[in-house]
Amino acid sequence: MELKGLHHVSAITANAKNNYDFYTQILGLRLVKKSVNQDDTSMYHLFYADEIGRPGTDLTFFEIVGAGHTYPGNNSISATSLRVPDDDALVYWIDRFNEMDVENNGIEEQFGRKVIHFKDHEDQRLVLVSDQTNEGVAGGIPWSNSVVPRDMGITGLGPVKLTVPDLEPTERILTGVLSFRKTGEYTSPVTDMPKIQVYTTGKGGTGAELHVEVRPHLQKERPGRGSVHHVALRVEDEVELNEWKKRISQERLPNSGVVDRYYFKSLYFREPNGILIELATDGPGFATDEDIEHLGEQIALPPFLERDREEIEAKLKPLDTKEK
């Protein structure tokens, strides 16, 4: 078995409206699903992605109203990358960020690629990475109605960085259980720490990498708004997901078992440094209950929550997500 790459990353916001404005009006992503956290229906769960929400293009947010500031640290998912088509796109994004007062470090090089480290309005740690030299997992297709020109638009998730105090336990799970391959290392352009290790799965490239940074003397991260909750990795289908469940259980890693999220099926577990990893199937996808032309406009609930719609909607602050 081999994981196909990144599926999605889920993070925390304190304000769904401000989050929606940033990720659609500044980053130009499409809101493909406006739903709720299935484990706590009092909070929004917003899904941003490419034109139809292809697996590997999806950045999601749980709204925790009043969530405090994140104190960055160890045992965390410490950076999320977003792919753009080429180096020229990064020049466009630098101009856009500077015009819109988005905090950024300018264009740098990381693992042989051009990148821009930047932050959203809640200090979410983000990276734009150029696919100029990418030969691995294909990116998605930006939405034609985005505020960003399609040839400059974000095409999906890029490498996700983990920060841990000790490499060995995490590496053992990545290579020994999840079948990642160690494919390189580089020095961080933002922390000047010892080498960051690169692990690759599937066809490789920007859409199939986890980067692991070791910070033995760093305090454990205190999560809040702007922190990442978990990273999800792509599995072909439910048959294969059940095989992964067997493997993870054989390793005596506590796990959730297979969970039906309606838009995909999932399995969750924590690796030894405490980072939450999800394995998620590619299908059935976000068009299961909405027309592709109108994704994300209404509150979408899976069938097992539909009977509680009135009660659920009453707890949520209205969020207008219809295209103007």
UniProtKB/TrEMBL annotation:
Keyword terms, alphabetized: Dioxygenase, Oxidoreductase
Keyword Amino-acid biosynthesis: no
Residue ranges constituting the VOC domain according to the UniProt record: 5-131, 156-282
Alphabetized GO MF terms: dioxygenase activity
TM region positions: none
Keyword Metal-binding assigned: no
Full protein name: Ring-cleaving dioxygenase
Organism of origin: Gracilibacillus xinjiangensis
